[in-house]
Design goal:
Helix content is 34%, strand content 18%. It has helices spanning 2-21, 42-47, 54-61, 113-125, 136-145; strands at 34-37, 74-82, 89-98, 101-107. 7% of the residues are buried.
Length: 169
């Protein structure tokens, strides 16, 4: 019974910590966007043709995220994108070679370049942008609440002794 009470106390303490760090859920800490891997769009995939050499595939898709020495005939392109308040995005593209020539491609459903850029912009614009400039009235009220301290000029330093001339005479 005591263990059950202790464990339930831990859970409520954890929730209390979360509530305190967000001021009762009113504020949430900023989490930056995290992008990892290669962005591969539908147009890039459509540009690939069977028989292309590895160098040409790399010129179109970029450097693969995973190119294993144990699987030399396979390149993996993985893209993840995490943004606060959204489901994480995960896309995979796997390119298979036979010798130096492209054999086949396996890929998740990929957006077009326009769809990808539009999704980034639309989701960013959904948030409210804060006003970053104070009005004259706000500045005046701030100055009244926080008067600037009087600044006294510092006295000129007194030389410790004679100095040699800077220029030769």
């Amino acid at each position: 019974m005591a263990a059950a009470l202790a464990l339930s106390g831990c859970a409520s303490f954890q929730n209390a910590g979360t509530q305190m760090s967000t001021l009762g859920g009113l504020l949430t800490p900023h989490r930056m966007d995290i992008q990892q891997g290669n962005v591969v769009v539908r147009e890039q995939l459509q540009a690939l043709q069977p028989g292309m050499p590895r160098a040409q595939v790399q010129a179109i898709l970029g450097t693969p995220l995973v190119a294993s020495a144990f699987h030399a005939a396979r390149w993996d392109y993985v893209f993840t994108f995490n943004r606060q308040g959204q489901e994480p995005q995960l896309r995979r593209v796997t390119v298979f070679f036979e010798g130096n020539a492209l054999q086949r491609v396996e890929a998740d459903e990929l957006p077009t370049e326009q769809e990808f850029v539009a999704a980034l912009q639309a989701e960013r614009a959904a948030g409210r942008t804060p006003v970053l400039q104070a009005s004259e009235e706000q500045l005046r009220a701030f100055r009244e609440r926080h008067p600037a301290p009087a600044i006294q000029p510092a006295p000129a330093p007194v030389p410790a002794g004679p100095f040699p001339p800077l220029e030769a005479r």
